[in-house]
Amino acid sequence: MKFLLISLLAVLFALPVFAGGKPVMDNGVRVIEIKRPYTNTMSIVFFVKGGTIRETEKNNGIGDLFTSSWVKSSELLKQVEFYGGGVSASVSSDFMEVSFAIPTEKFDKLIGYYSAMISKPEIDPEVFKREKALLKESIIAAEDNPDSRAYKNFQKATYGAHPYGLPGEGTLESVESLTEKALKAYGKEMLTGSNITLAVAGNYTEDQMNRIRAIFSALPRGKAYKPDCTGSVILKDEQVREKDKNSKQAKLYIGYTAPDAAASDYPALKVVTDLLGGGMSSRYFNELRKDKGYAYSVYAAYASRLCSSRFMSYIGLNSENVPDALKSLDRINKTFYETLTDEELEAAKNYMLGRLLTDSQTNSKQAWYACFFENVGLGSAYFDNYVETLRKITKEDVRRAAKIFEGPKTVFILN
């Protein structure tokens, strides 16, 4: 593992993977170039500020329905698979993300279709009907799944009225109300230069880059979107219980207010997440599953957000063990650093770095990380700094990050 980590770091830092200019076009589009001439492919990735955070209870799910209908209505989708490429779009909590990956030699054959998809987004009526029906079916299926319903209701409980508490796929009521007209208006609002960060990674020529620039420079500037983070923190302890006669086990979630992705403690809390619930060597696994035999599943998660996030502790277990598991998780969270060893910390960091560096080797991922870090305010080249910061995390950094566990928490129990 150590040899792999050193090798990956050597490759990463030997190459100017995040080199290139980051000019801002007249319409506000931010452009990041990542030259990787040793590849035979290229990826065009762009982020649009505002994912489900832009949505309301009334139009919840519009991002999900728009992205699937938009891509599947495009001629590009019909053409790109024939040439060995791919195109996709999705909506996360904070962004709409669009990715287009192709063999560089097929650029001329496909760029026209890509241009049409971006500059003149279409929603085919038949595709819209089909995707809307499929989305409603998936919502019904998720509601019948105790795991999906528990997670959705935990998010609602911990975020309250803030849009982070909305389900990405929407509700039956909100999706039923969505129309083609609404989707077209949504696309027009989203595809504006002032909210787009574009990254091109791979093997491409200056002429190809100029043609890509021309596509995005033609977009209207639009109004810059700024997320409203009001109400994204937990103000008081709260416990929510729900009954589920179909569930064979209890689902226990504990949520603590966690810093946004631009905060100084963000990297350290990522390490804390791995230490506590990142796998079979984690504290949760060893005490709650290995020693006590409680857990069917146990883990920790910490999502990257523009507003306040949540550190989430989860365990699936028999109902009679919930009270002790709740006390145990809260105790582990508040005291684990007291017995944290240097070896345990190094093992967690090495595992994280190996996974991160392996994941980041593709053109698409290089472009994705550049867009992400640019949008959270850390700069497109921050990935290298992030890797180095993770390597230097100390026990004191961990102790400081763990102070979030002293604050109020949301407890959600489904059984």
TrEMBL record:
Q: List, alphabetically, the InterPro entries matched.
A: Metalloenz_LuxS/M16, MPP/UQCRC_Complex, Pept_M16_N, Peptidase_M16_C
- Annotated protein name in UniProt: Putative Zn-dependent peptidase
Arranged from A to Z, the UniProt key words for this protein are: Signal
Reading the lineage from the top rank, the first entry is Bacteria
Positions of the Peptidase M16 N-terminal domain: 30-167
Q: Which GO terms describe its molecular function?
A: metal ion binding
- Is Signal among the key words of this record? yes
